[in-house]
Amino acid sequence: MKLLLLLSLIGFCWAQYDPHTQYGRTAIVHLFEWRWADIAKECERYLAPNGFGGVQISPPNENSVINNPSRPWWERYQPVSYKICTRSGNEGEFQDMVTRCNNVGVRIYVDAVINHMCGSGNPAGTSSTCGSYYNPNNRDFPSVPYSGWDFNDGKCQTNNGEIQNYNDAAQVRDCRLSGLLDLALGKDYVRTTIANYMNHLIDIGVAGFRLDASKHMWPGDIKAVLDKLNNLNTKWFSEGSRPFIYQEVIDLGGEAISSSEYFGNGRVTEFKYGAKLGTVMRKWNGEKMAYLKNWGEGWGFMPSDRALVFVDNHDNQRGHGAGGASILTFWDARLYKMAVGFMLAHPYGFTRVMSSYSWPRYFENGKDINDWVGPPNDNGVTKEVTINADTTCGNGWICEHRWRQIRNMVAFRNVVQSQPFANWWDNGSNQVAFGRGNKGFIVFNNDDWSLSSTLQTGLPAGTYCDVISGDKINGDCTGIKIYVSNDGTAYFSISNSAEDPFIAIHVESKL
Ligand code: AAO
């Protein structure tokens, strides 16, 4: 019995569901399109000191260089080879990043584009980030190498080789997603080639992978690739640790393929999370925050220990992928901070924070015609992430993860880790509050009138700094103070016109 318990504990700790973040770190950040040199610095100067667990990076392998439009962000989802060579940096810079981040306890998760190569209509030649030759027309990628045998052209049953119907699971997996050449993951050669690429990254020291377009791969084919992966590098991880896996499967319901088919391989992105939370915060469809009382599985989401959750991602913040107009982003900063705050305070799922760059968003007929615009750059060369005197980022980088409210809620999540959801309160409308055991408490006012209530916090008596309006610095609060009495209650007052209409306190923000 004891042995079984021990084995299952070990199984959990070392399995593909575990992000292998350093003890006490519970959230990761997607540094979308950042250069490796900037990520290395960010790990040391900001992420480690502020308790971030890890970074999801943009795809590190060589991609097609697209010139029409000019260097879109999405060219990185069109692989040409598995050389570590992109606008974010070369292999030396990649190794330096992984080493330096791991050395300060911040993990690196690679966005692995393994379902396909580049678009079938791209011209033959050397328009690629490392100068490799390729010819999409005859499926020739000599730098891998892949040839016509390694693609699903013969297997796909639609008349034009494209996915036409998401209600047909076979075509979603065997046909081309937006013209992208679909790799034959049923073949051992392709599986081994992909596993070699991933093992190269594992040996350098990455902790895991986001598997791009997982819905478009058969779960069994993914498993066959994962079975070939090495254990994590023992320089930083305990012996026998398996890479963390989270699969990008968009399942909002109503299609042939469901997330649960992928649970055996690892975690899965829960796209219902951001779509629903955005709807609630915007008060669309009669939704209100009071309904969040049973947030999580109670809303029809996947089991918490399988879910990778986020408010927005690099696709749906600009109208790609799924989720639609309800998705909250930095463009709606006030509601966005509340939504991210709610996510980080709530126990459901493993959390990922988005970190974006700005682009000239411009809607025509409801569609952002600049949804393709790549990262801040000079003639295609990605700009450095500069840091302003007030700790925000310059050069067009938004750095949501550096916003005080978000940074402090990452710390909140670390403090309340594994504490139960507790002391829920709501006013039947959009004023809600909840705690995490006796470690933290958060109150939201998303109504059009002010909140003033005495609530049970579950916290020990004392004076606490609200970590939304300010920080605890040198034994004092730079923002609002909250006084918890001996019975655990405290009085909260939040104006509906406050800059940030929510308050969060935790045991480490106590004076
Ligand atoms: C680019 C060009 C294309 C060109 C292609 C090849 O834009 O015009 O044909 O190159 O030359 C990214 C960009 C693409 C880009 C691609 C390659 O987003 O625009 O194509 O790089 O450069 C599907 C997939 C999902 C995918 C998502 C974007 O299932 O895996 O589309 N996300 C990942 C990445 C993404 C990347 C790729 C995959 C490709 O995160 O950045 O693409 O590597 C339904 C389905 C979803 C499907 C969406 C969109 O969703 O369920 O599975 O996502 O449609 O096609 C409601 C529904 C919801 C529905 C949604 C949209 O919300 O409830 O289910 O509407 O209809």
**Order of adjacent strands in the largest pleated sheet:** 1-2-6-9-10-11-12-13
Shape: globular
Gap between N and C termini, in Å?
A: 45 Å
* Low-pLDDT segments: none
Structural class: alpha/beta
Bound molecules: acarbose derived hexasaccharide
For the secondary structure, the number of strands is 27
Radius of gyration: 23 Å
Largest sheet: 8 strands, parallel, barrel
Averaged pLDDT: 97
What's the helical proportion of residues? 10-25%
Percentage of residues in DSSP E strands: 15-25%
Q: How many distinct helices? A: 9
Catalytic activity: Endohydrolysis of (1->4)-alpha-D-glucosidic linkages in polysaccharides containing three or more (1->4)-alpha-linked D-glucose units
Organism: Nannospalax galili (Northern Israeli blind subterranean mole rat)
Signal peptide: 1-15
Pfam family, one: Alpha-amylase
Q: How would you explain this protein's 3D organization?
A:
With 511 residues, this protein is of the alpha/beta class. 21% of the residues lie in helices and 22% in strands. It contains 9 helices and 27 strands. It has helices at residues 2-14, 36-47, 91-103, 169-174, 188-204, 219-226, 271-281, 333-345, 404-415; strands spanning 27-31, 54-57, 61-63, 79-86, 89-90, 107-112, 116-119, 180-182, 208-211, 244-247, 267-269, 307-309, 350-355, 363-364, 367-368, 377-378, 381-382, 421-426, 431-436, 440-445, 451-456, 462-465, 472-473, 476-477, 481-484, 489-494, 502-506. The strands form 9 sheets. Strands 1-2-6-9-10-11-12-13 form an 8-stranded parallel barrel, surrounded by 6 helices. A 4-stranded antiparallel β-sheet has the order 18-19-20-27, with helices on one face. β19 (431-436) and β20 (440-445) form a beta hairpin. α2 (36-47) packs parallel to α3, α5 (188-204) packs across α6 (219-226) and α8 packs parallel to α9. It is globular, with a radius of gyration of 23 Å. 51% of the residues are buried. The model has no long low-confidence stretch (mean pLDDT 97). The structure holds acarbose derived hexasaccharide (AAO). Acarbose derived hexasaccharide binds at residues 74-75, 77-78, 113, 119, 166, 177-180, 212-213, 215, 248, 250, 252, 255, 315, 320-324. Acarbose derived hexasaccharide is lined by residues 74-75, 77-78, 113, 119, 166, 177-180, 212-213, 215, 248, 250, 252, 255, 315, 320-324.
